[in-house]
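Section handout 9: paired folding examples.
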Amino acid sequence: MKIALIGYGKMGQEIEKIALDRGHEIVSKIDVSSEDSFTDDAFKSADVAIEFTRPEAAYDNYMKCFDAKVPVVSGTTGWLDKLAEIKDRCDNDNQTFFYASNFSLGVNIFFELNKQLARIMNKMDEYNVSMEEVHHTQKLDAPSGTAITLAEGIIENIDKKNDWKLDQEESNSDLAIKAIREGQVPGIHTVKYESSVDEIIIHHSAKSRKGFALGAVLAAEFASKNSGYLSMNDLLNF
């Protein structure tokens, strides 16, 4: 499979290693100094592009991929206000877009566990739920896309929670997400249910970027053979 990399920072480099180990070819590498490469024949030859950049650049990158008819796999977060437009291009312009707030297989198992626990806790009025996420200081968005996905899984399944708020609740119907930025932490997410007598905690801690990169390459393999708007639920078939 021919892969184009959009964003060649630490994640892009880790993705490259895993892609090569799995027998794929990197035909194009695009960063802020080579944005004109979207129109090159090398980029257009790609079976799929994997995009990890910045929130303010992501949407334009997607549009350039669509214009070149190259399927996109993206792990950039912080741009979801334009998600409806991306889905519209997939539906009406025969484009392929695979998005995940987190490509780690372990995190996606954690997402499913989080939803199941929320269903169980829905009737337990004595417990309040809160969240904390920790990431490296280079991460620009807060809370993380992973934390938002976890929050959405809770809000969908707990009747008394209607919205999430950064750092602290404004009302009892809010879910507080505390976001911490420190050191080189790849990602730690904790969901806590607390009552006056005990607490229940589920927790995921990434050891490195390797798990995210592997998931992104697996997503690229899947996107190269499928079409439309895709997610980790499609890939993992939970």
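Moving on to protein 2 of 2.
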Amino acid sequence: MTISSTGIGSGLDVKSIVSQLVAIEKQPLVQLQTKASKLQTQLSLYGTIKSQMSALGDAAALLSGSSGWNTQTGSSSNAAAVGVNVGSTASSAALTINVTQLAAAQSTASLGVAKGVAPGASGTLSFQLGTWTGGSFAAGASAAVSVTVSATDTVSAIASKINAANTGIKASVLSDGVNERLTFQSSTSGAAMGFSVTATPDSGDNGTLANYGFTDATATNATQSSGTSTGMFMGQSGLDANLTVNGVAMTSASNTMNNVTPGVSLQLSQVTTAPVTVIVANDLAATQKNIQSFVDAYNAINATLAEATKYDASTKIAGPMQGDATTVGLMTALRTMMGSTSVGSSLTHLSDAGLERQKDGSLKINQTKLSSAMQDLDNLKNLFTVNNSDATTSGFGVKVRDFAHDMVTFDGRVTNKTAALQKSINNNSSDQDRVNKRASVVEAQLNKQYAALDLRMADLSSLNSFVTAQLAVWNKSTT
């Protein structure tokens, strides 16, 4: 077996020679890799630009329609008595409210029995929803629901059976530590959600089931305890809320009144002794927040574009897109738009509403001017929402929304630039692959050539040794 290593025959540092020659072959990679790094930076930058452009479009879209301007807020002069909730469909309103009665759910209570002891009641309790008028009961439209009670049932067991039967009644147990009372309450408030309970004992009942019936609305705890009345007593009758709103009498089965005016709900908590004023008005804080979001979104992309295209003369360092026509054009277009006019409002420039342009192209809110403009909200709204079907004179919400959308759509300028950068990166990668493949071929050829040279030099070296030995022999034989 022959062991060989390139360079042994020739004495040359073949590995180093080949390495240096291959390095020369790969020199174009340095420029390609530098360019690839720059392209990746530019692609990442355009990812940021696309995201910020979309955010600007969203902020402008909110101001381009009514949703960004019609947010309402409600206030009550006595929130402890009358609370107010305002929805998205609400309009400005002023309400004067007097509450004379709150809605209540009917409740009844039984006599007490020893805690944990089955009272011995057996039979059927029939629950019927309806309305009490004095001592008279009028059944409602829904059918009565019956619950069977066993003599071994404790008060808690009876309550559980009633709650499982979907009677429209909530059963509970009150305990003072010694005795337990069974209580019933309508699941919902209102005069029409009262109830009666008919007790039908079976033959094994010891007379106790009647204690859980309720057919006499005049019964009280006192008459029940004295034995002059049978069954449960009325703890609270079912009531509707009674109130006036701007002098108009109203009733409600619930203390939560929805859509008293469109989008406005009232929560009644107390009977009032003085009129309560509820005001529904434009939420200027929400409007200011929407405007601030618009300014912030614009300033973010303006700063990104400015940083990307700048040239620092002192450090002689250029931004990654310095001189790029697409990026410079995008920044110029945005800044020009912010300085343009809108037709349809007495406010024609953003600066008229306090959104003032700065030297670096950013916007800064002049709070005094904006607060003044917000006192005429319809006029300020028009500055953003008027649609003239003209990109130069439409409201700023409309024109910026449409511009941003056009930039990031499938064939928009930002999207196309992103695609072009990605294509350049792909081409660069292919060019690097070609250089590396060429270098590999050259390296293989050089190794082959130097291996052949090494063998030839080894042969010559052997021949030289032989000739030298023969000459030495000849020289000896002639002396």
